[in-house]
TrEMBL record:
Organism: Tuber aestivum (summer truffle)
Listed name of the protein: glutamine--fructose-6-phosphate transaminase (isomerizing)
Pathway(s) per entry: Nucleotide-sugar biosynthesis; UDP-N-acetyl-alpha-D-glucosamine biosynthesis; alpha-D-glucosamine 6-phosphate from D-fructose 6-phosphate: step 1/1
Residues covered by the SIS domain: 374-513, 546-687
InterPro entries for the chain: GATase_2_dom (IPR017932), GFAT_N (IPR047084), GlmS/AgaS_SIS (IPR035466), GlmS/FrlB_SIS (IPR035490), Ntn_hydrolases_N (IPR029055), SIS_dom (IPR001347), SIS_dom_sf (IPR046348)
Length: 702
């Protein structure tokens, strides 16, 4: 997904070197999201001048371009607004011209950076071209800057907030954007609709309150022509305004934010950091405010005002300023070579964080605070529908069986894109569970809105606090896995798995017949972290195995059955997206229905054969593969007698309760994917053609 970062300083003197460095560093923190070009816009040396630098490729190339341009880095600014962006091409090829920031005209009267897709950009472009505007890029974003310029030209007296509302009222689609203008120096408008934005706040004095009031307007913004006409009428009635007369408050900001005023009512020196991801902000400040959909934030004169067009409609009247629970070292690689490797090895801790304060193993109790008020309603529902994409979909598949067993409620697991394509029936007595690492997965968000419109109860299982899914669902659980920087999701999968198992345990706590089974599962959860550590000790052995068996291979089969089919699906996805090796997950029971034709002594096969109730059935598939000359690598339990005398290569797993075995079995598959990619000298954290979250209607891998 594209990345946004902005920096505004007010009465805090900074030189251009610091400002550019802050913007470049912010973009570097967003590199994991996937992008093909980057750019920044800062104030120039003269009044109403903007310096914009844009480059195709990595942020390092952008920094090199700026160094070659040799701007005056010693120029100082008491107040300044800079914006920057990393772009994943959706409209137009990666090029300097199509790269953000985009401008309204050659003098950069309005400059914008934007995440998402404007679905009605063609109509806006045609309208603006008929008004004489000339477009220079292939992007949908350029129409935002040109629309702002057009509205301003119609009414030069318009204030920045009203102008931004007028622009946003015309936009359709999903977006997060920052807008700056030479007509409103040192100010930035930020807007969110379906694409995340967070604002970091840093003040030299303690803020008076820990929230910002939301300013609602009872009517939609006036068209530019009508607003201009009203100003003219006011001047005709009252004549030129006497400078000693009380100011016309309708032409001023309607309120001042209480959080950013000193005791004498004057604004205090402040810095603001705007980003599409809080990981880019944490090194500057931990005081953050998450914008909600349809929020329009105005940063000016050391203040932050939040506006919403139209009436409140039940929306909260404040936005809390929260403390960011994130440490800088969490988004650094530390001793590891890649973020993916680091996150694989963090799983013993991340699953503990998911369970902390929720699983009381001693008293055999699970407490999920975010669901407590809704558990009785969910227990009475007609069915539970899990809706997700990619890795999150696999975590839902992995727990489907235990949900059916413990709750005895019909369970459906849906891919969000297919669910939407079919316009699947949803009823008021359904519970729809949306699982997403980022909480911003585009198809899952559209499916969520679809279910809300039909009156279903919605539950969010997400990792990112303040994400769209966490805000829009009725209730939910944060998996607390910590930031996941690598594109290939690893620790989020295992934390989602654990969170969903705890969800099933909570729903079944009133069932006496399930008490023993629930206790066994809780005991198994308490041992998971240590068992992860035990498996990770095989890291180098798995690396050697990859070199021996998979070198120069073009295809790979992964076989699993029952609960382990979801494990096979997840492992195959990891291998495909990171190592670019074709890998197909096949349910072992379907092997004889065509897939056996592929099996010979040359095809690499991994079979998941850990013990469970259907182990004998899975063993039949193993015998069929061996009988046809196949040489499978077997993931089995430690010292399993069944494979003691077999000549096959084995990866031995600790034994746990059957419904949790998939948690352990996925770890070696993550390591195999990692080492296969390393062997091919591939960029593990930034696989080709693959953003972390895609905007608009494109599927997001999560």
């Amino acid at each position: 997904m594209c990345g946004i970062f902005g920096y505004i300083n007010y009465l805090v003197e900074k030189d251009r070197k610091y400002i550019i460095g802050t913007l470049i560093n912010g973009l570097s923190r967003l590199e994991y999201r996937g992008y093909d070009s980057a750019g920044i816009a800062v104030d120039g040396d003269k009044e109403n001048e903007v310096f914009a630098y844009k480059e195709v490729g990595k942020v390092a190339k952008l920094k090199q371009l700026i160094d070659e341009a040799k701007p005056d880095l010693n120029a100082t600014f008491v107040s300044h607004a800079g914006i920057s962006h990393t772009r994943w091409a959706t409209h137009g090829q990666p090029s300097r011209l199509n790269c953000h920031p985009h401008r309204s005209d050659p003098t950069f009267r309005f400059t914008v950076v934007h995440n998402g897709i404007i679905t009605n950009y063609k109509e806006l472009k045609a309208l603006l071209e008929s008004k004489g505007e000339v477009f220079e890029t292939e992007t949908d974003t350029e129409c935002i800057a040109k629309l702002a310029k057009y509205i301003y030209d119609q009414n030069p007296a318009i204030d920045f907030t009203t102008l931004a509302k007028s622009v946003i009222a015309e936009l359709e689609g999903a977006f997060g954007l920052l807008l700056k203008s030479v007509h409103y120096p040192h100010e930035v408008m930020a807007a969110r609709k379906g694409s995340p934005l967070v604002i970091g706040v840093k003040t030299q004095r303690k803020m008076k309150v820990d929230f910002v009031d939301v300013e609602f307007s009872d009517s939609a913004p006036l068209p530019a022509e009508q607003a201009s006409h009203n100003v003219a009428l006011k001047n005709l009635r009252n004549g030129p305004q006497n400078t000693l007369a009380p100011p016309d408050k309708s032409l001023l900001h309607r309120s001042q934010s209480r959080a950013f005023l000193s005791d004498d009512g004057m604004p205090v020196p402040a810095e603001f950091f705007l980003s599409s991801d809080p990981s880019a902000i944490v090194e500057h400040t931990k005081m953050v405010l998450y914008l909600e959909d349809d929020d329009i934030a105005h940063i000016h004169e050391g203040q932050l005002n939040i506006h919403r067009a139209g009436k409140s409609g039940g929306a909260s009247a404040i936005r809390s300023i929260q403390t960011l629970e994130l440490e800088l070292q969490e988004i650094m690689k530390g001793k590891f070579d890649h973020f993916m490797q680091k996150e694989i090895f963090e799983q013993p801790e991340s699953v503990v964080n998911t369970m902390r304060g929720r699983l009381d193993a001693k008293n055999k109790k699970v407490t999920l605070g975010g669901l407590r008020q809704y558990l009785s309603t969910i227990r009475r529902c007609r069915r539970i529908i899990f809706i997700a994409c990619g890795t999150s979909y696999h975590s839902c598949m992995a727990v489907r069986g235990i949900f059916e067993e413990l709750t005895e409620i019909p369970i459906a697991v849906e891919l969000a894109s297919d669910f939407l394509d079919r316009q699947a029936p949803v009823f008021r007595d359904d519970t729809c569970v949306f699982v997403s690492q980022s909480g911003e997965t585009a198809d899952s968000l559209m499916a969520l809105k679809y279910c809300l419109e039909r009156g279903a109860l919605t539950v969010g299982i997400v990792n990112v606090v303040g994400s769209s899914i966490s805000l829009l669902t009725h209730c939910g659980v944060h998996i607390n896995a910590g930031p996941e920087i690598g594109v290939a999701s690893t620790k989020a999968y295992t934390s989602q798995f654990v969170a969903l198992v705890m969800f099933a345990l909570s729903l079944s706590e009133d069932r006496a017949s399930k008490a023993k089974r629930r206790e066994d599962i809780m005991d198994g959860l308490t041992r998971i972290s240590e068992q992860f550590k035990q498996i990770l000790e095989q890291d180098q052995a798995i690396k050697a195995m990859c070199s021996k068996f998979f070198h120069n291979q073009k295809s790979l089969l992964l076989l699993g059955r029952g609960n382990q089919f979801a494990t096979a699906l997840e492992g195959a996805l990891k291998i495909k997206e990171i190592s670019y090796l074709h890998c197909e997950a096949v349910m072992s029971g379907e092997l004889k229905h065509g897939v056996l034709a592929l099996v010979d002594e040359n095809l690499p096969i991994i079979m998941i054969l850990t013990r469970d109730e259907i182990f004998k059935k899975s063993l039949n598939a193993y015998q069929q593969v061996v009988a046809r000359g196949g040489r499978p690598i077997v993931i089995c339990n430690e010292a399993d007698e069944e494979f003691k005398n077999e000549k096959c290569e084995k990866i031995e797993m600790p034994t746990t309760i059957d419904c949790l075995q998939g948690l352990l079995n996925v770890i070696p598959l993550q390591l195999i994917a990692y080492w296969l990619a390393i062997a091919e000298n591939l960029n593990v954290d930034f696989p080709r053609k693959f953003p972390r979250t895609l905007p608009g209607r494109l599927n997001a891998h999560d």
